[in-house]
Amino acid sequence: MPTPVSAPRIAVIGAGPGGLTCARVLQRHGIPVTVYDREASRAARDQGGTLDLHADNGQVALEAAGLLDAFFAKARPEGQEMRTYEAASGALTGRHVPGPEEMFKPEIDRGVLRDLLLDSLAPGTVRWGHALAAVDGPAEGPRTLRFADGTTAAADLVIGADGAWSRVRRALSGALPAYGGVTFLEAWFDDVETRHPELAALVGQGGAHAADGERTMFRQRIGGGPHPRPT
């Protein structure tokens, strides 16, 4: 009689769009997975701005996750509008207005996308409040996950989806992010249709940008459900 093979212990580090999509695809195939994230809860912080998910990559991943129709129901196809302005004069030099059926890269707020993914997972999949400090153990496994609070967990496969300063990457490589000489300054404007109508008119339903070769100003409209947060 063959010896039963136990399911591998799979750990995904990071409950962002990449890590959650990975977990969702695994669960659709009946493969158990645990996601660890450093945030205290799903509501611990604002998830930021908006993403455009392209038909040839992001939408492919959501289709594999069985969530493409749910994505289209929440996405903002009008967010594909793009305006270009001349930096010195502010003159409008280009404008792309998406057609009625254009869905190549519709926008979706990061928080909305994250909620969509979280709600698709089995209860208890995400372990909040687990900031990874290090990964160690033999190359052949199992690996030991060491968290900042002193707790540990064992895994046969560790998937790093924990961003630029990934702790998982350090188990494989000494490469670290480096400053590339570009600095961003971000500002948010709430209730722009009422409080900043001139800015709303400038941006339109999607994004607008102007550049002079050294500096770029980019504006992007955010959805945000009942409390819009365009920028």
Q: What does this molecule look like?
A:
It is a single chain. By secondary structure, the chain is of the alpha/beta class. The chain is built from six helices and 13 strands. The strands form four sheets. The chain has a four-stranded parallel beta sheet with strand order 7-2-1-11, covered by helices on one side. The protein has a four-stranded mixed beta sheet with strand order 5-4-12-13, with no helix packed on it. It has a three-stranded antiparallel beta sheet with strand order 8-9-10, with no helix packed on it. A hairpin with a 6-residue loop joins strand 8 and strand 9. Helix 1 packs parallel to helix 4. It is globular and about 65 Å long. The C terminus is likely disordered.
Give me a quick take on this structure.
By secondary structure, this protein is of the alpha/beta class. It has helices spanning 17-28, 58-64, 68-74, 110-120, 192-195, 197-203; strands spanning 10-13, 34-36, 50-52, 82-86, 92-96, 107-109, 126-127, 132-136, 143-147, 152-155, 157-160, 207-211, 216-220.
Q: Keywords for this structure?
A:
single chain, 231 residues, alpha/beta, four-stranded parallel sheet, four-stranded mixed sheet, 6 helices, 21% helix, disordered C terminus
Task: Indicate the percent of residues in helices.
Answer: 10-25%
Assign an overall shape. Answer: globular
Specify the number of helices. Answer: 6
Percent range for β-strand residues: 15-25%
